[in-house]
């Protein structure tokens, strides 16, 4: 189903200049793995290593990402995904593997996505609308995110 929707998007729109993915999820505090669902009758959480998690999510988008001029990943997750060395290494490798232009994640142990509203609006203004490279725009984005 997802693959068909993404294929239809690609056919209808042609080449996408910029793609922005936003993922909001909980992470396992011990190892930084994002939660992928539930298992069993007791509905226990199941987490997956971040690279496996992103492989599954990005697979249908592969061609669109590869054809896009820029692609960004925003991870609205608790900081364990960054603070755990193995998880962070897997995240960086996955960003490279999926040819994403940049990824933004946060290191707050109890992350609150609502606090990122100003940062996200500044990203839209500076990077998406004004087309500044994210590396140059990021200090200005941070300045507007208080």
What does this structure look like?
The protein is an alpha/beta fold. The protein has a domain at 20-111. 46% of the residues lie in helices and 19% in strands. The strands form two sheets. A three-stranded parallel beta sheet has the order 1-4-5, with no helix packed on it. A two-stranded antiparallel sheet has the order 2-3. The model has no long low-confidence stretch (mean pLDDT 89).
Rg over C-alpha atoms, rounded to the nearest angstrom: 16 Å
Summed over residues and divided by their number, the pLDDT gives a mean of 89
User: How do the strands of the widest beta sheet line up side by side?
Assistant: 1-4-5
**Backbone shape:** globular
Distance between the termini: 40 Å
The largest pleated sheet is described as: 3 strands, parallel
Number of strands: 5
Query: Roughly what fraction of the amino acids lie in strands?
Result: 15-25%
Order of helical and strand elements? HEEEHHEHHEHH
Secondary-structure-derived class: alpha/beta
Topology:
Blueprint: H1 2-13, E1 18-25, E2 35-39, E3 44-47, H2 50-58, H3 62-67, E4 70-77, H4 80-83, H5 85-97, E5 102-104, H6 117-129, H7 134-143
Parallel strand pairs: 1-4, 4-5
Antiparallel strand pairs: 2-3
Compact summary:
46% of the residues lie in helices and 19% in strands. With 146 residues, it is an alpha/beta fold. The chain has a domain at 20-111.
